[in-house]
């Protein structure tokens, strides 16, 4: 048995996977999110551990026998979060999350302090990354920064609580801006520019390597063997890719979670920071990946569901599917939390353009589905310009369950999309696979096989033509509004 733990933004998911790679049990615990000011996004790291412990408590109640056979544990988590600890590993302040946009000034200062930072890290300096967040704390909360002894990413804080070890791995560390991604090592120069050195950083391993073992008291609490090792694991996107079998160059994953990510595996480091393409290490040795990232994908659907007072997202999607004819829906810019690829614009805002008295809630929802698809097309274009080769695209995530959205996405991206049957547990399942690799030392190709597909959605030619005109207007709308957003 192998255990996969995925620390998301809205919940912690835990899955139990057997030797045949079947999920035999799972548990989910919700997390809260705090936005104390505009652009801010924070969570309490201690809540991450409480939720994880509660999920494992629930799994122990329902699957005690299976847990007693766990040989290794894999960790996955939301990337970029700045978890600041003192010399006794006490949390100093709420963690600044991946979608926190307060550090734009610190980004400019970091670029000025390290002019070669894009060459070192292979990435554009963005407020979403970890280093600018810590620079913000240094500038605005000096009394907190003075006590910082360790900085950990979210899943690595969980590792510390579970094993006592301060360790990260290459895929998640790539999103800090402190890693020389091509060389797979910390950059002393960028650390120094943020007032830190390697003593504040965790040790680095590959995601498929062991990092330690579960603490004895926790192993006893959950009935897990005391020698159960904890694998390096991965950032959520790389873990989701492992869960979907995305390991070879050209294989791609479209993840429709709160954020939207197009992830392409590669065997070379191919940076393109000018277009806000992320070039990161994969969680397997000698492999890298490129990503385009939009900050509000399924999050936009959840938002419009609340906005119109729909019973549920499923009910709202059903109303979109039923509607035919009438006036075209408005154009929607899905920048509810700012945007990354390709704009790198924390000030970008969500916009409905072209509203009339004839529009209803289904039209607004349809506009949101299209707007997210158009933003993903922007990201795809940036990846292709950066030299990426895209072969098959597998779709996972909570937003992957709508057939209506599938048709829109395939038409907007102008390529077939393969929908995985197990869409909701990708990162946690990938973490369990990394746990297995750390324990058995099997080759990744032997374990990381593609999941069973529930459908392949081909682009509809009529819809491709219809969306092409709307996409052109979408692009003009952002260009015209970008100066006003500030």
What can you see in these coordinates?
The strands form seven sheets. Strands 1, 2, 3, 5, 13, 14 and 15 form a seven-stranded mixed beta sheet that branches. This protein has a seven-stranded mixed beta sheet with strand order 18-19-17-16-22-23-24. The longest helix has 25 residues, at 361-385. It is globular and about 65 Å long. 39% of the residues lie in helices and 21% in strands. The chain has 486 residues and is of the alpha/beta class.
Radius of gyration: 21 Å
| Major sheet size, sense and barrel closure | 7 strands, mixed
Structural class: alpha/beta
Number of helices: 17
Percent helix, as a range, is: 25-40%
- Report how far the terminal alpha carbons are from each other: 52 Å
What is the approximate shape? globular
Mean pLDDT, rounded to whole units?
Answer: 94
Instruction: Determine the oligomeric state from the structure.
Output: single chain
Uncertain spans, ≥5 residues at pLDDT below 50?
none
Q: What is the tally of beta strands?
A: 24
Proportion of beta-strand residues: 15-25%
Which helices and strands, and how do they pair?
Elements: E1 2-7, E2 11-17, E3 23-30, E4 42-43, H1 45-67, E5 72-77, E6 83-85, E7 95-96, H2 104-113, H3 117-121, H4 130-140, H5 142-145, E8 150-152, H6 154-163, E9 167-169, H7 170-173, E10 179-180, E11 185-186, H8 188-193, E12 203-205, E13 210-213, H9 216-222, E14 229-231, E15 234-235, H10 236-243, E16 252-256, E17 260-266, E18 278-281, E19 288-294, H11 298-308, H12 313-322, E20 331-334, E21 350-353, H13 361-385, E22 393-396, H14 403-413, E23 417-420, H15 426-440, H16 444-447, E24 453-457, H17 461-485
Parallel strand pairs: 1-5, 5-14, 5-15, 9-12, 16-22, 22-23
Antiparallel strand pairs: 1-2, 2-3, 4-7, 6-8, 10-11, 13-14, 16-17, 17-19, 18-19, 20-21, 23-24
Helix pairs in contact: 1-6, 2-4, 10-15, 11-13, 12-13, 13-14, 14-17
């Amino acid at each position: 048995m192998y255990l996969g733990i995925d620390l998301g933004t809205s919940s912690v998911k835990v899955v139990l996977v057997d030797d045949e790679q079947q999920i035999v049990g799972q548990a989910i615990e919700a997390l809260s999110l705090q936005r104390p000011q505009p652009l801010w996004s924070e969570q309490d790291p201690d809540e991450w551990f409480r939720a994880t412990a509660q999920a494992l408590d629930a799994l122990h109640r329902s699957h005690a026998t299976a847990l007693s056979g766990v040989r290794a544990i894999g960790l996955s988590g939301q990337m970029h979060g700045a978890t600041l600890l003192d010399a006794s590993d006490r949390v100093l302040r709420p963690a600044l999350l991946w979608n926190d946009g307060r550090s734009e000034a610190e980004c400019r200062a970091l670029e000025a302090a390290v002019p070669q930072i894009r060459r070192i890290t292979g990435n554009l300096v963005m407020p979403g990354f970890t280093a600018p967040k810590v620079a913000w704390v240094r500038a605005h909360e000096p009394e907190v920064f003075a006590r910082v002894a360790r900085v950990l990413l979210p899943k690595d804080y969980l590792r510390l609580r579970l094993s006592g070890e301060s360790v990260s791995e290459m895929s998640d560390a790539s999103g800090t801006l402190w890693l020389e991604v091509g060389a797979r090592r910390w950059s002393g120069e960028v650390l120094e520019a943020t007032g830190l050195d390697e003593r504040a950083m965790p040790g680095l391993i590959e995601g498929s390597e062991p990092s330690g073992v579960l603490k004895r008291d926790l192993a006893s609490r959950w009935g897990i063997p005391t020698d159960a090792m904890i694998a390096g694991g991965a950032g959520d996107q790389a873990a989701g890719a492992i869960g979907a079998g995305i390991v070879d160059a050209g294989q791609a994953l479209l993840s429709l979670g709160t954020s939207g990510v197009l992830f392409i595996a590669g065997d070379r480091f191919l940076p393109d920071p000018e277009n806000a393409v992320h070039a990161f290490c994969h969680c397997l040795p000698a492999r890298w990946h490129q990503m385009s990232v939009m900050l509000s994908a399924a999050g936009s659907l959840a938002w419009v569901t609340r906005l119109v007072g729909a019973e549920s997202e499923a009910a709202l999607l059903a109303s979109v599917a039923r509607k035919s004819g009438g006036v075209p829906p408005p154009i929607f810019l899905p920048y509810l939390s700012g945007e990354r690829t390709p704009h790198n614009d924390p000030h970008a805002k969500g916009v409905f353009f072209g509203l009339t008295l004839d529009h209803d809630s289904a039209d607004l929802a349809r506009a949101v589905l299209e707007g997210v698809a158009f933003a993903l097309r922007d990201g795809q274009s940036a990846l292709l310009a950066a030299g990426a080769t895209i072969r098959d695209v597998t779709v996972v995530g909570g937003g992957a369950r709508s057939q209506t959205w599938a048709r829109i996405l395939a038409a907007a991206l102008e390529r077939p999309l393969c929908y995985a049957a197990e869409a909701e547990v990708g990162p946690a399942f990938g973490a369990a696979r990394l746990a297995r690799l750390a324990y058995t030392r099997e080759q990744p190709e032997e374990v990381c096989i593609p999941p069973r597909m529930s459908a392949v959605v081909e682009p509809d030619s009529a819809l491709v033509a219809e969306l092409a005109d709307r996409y052109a207007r979408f692009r003009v709308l952002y260009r015209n509004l970008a100066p006003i957003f500030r």
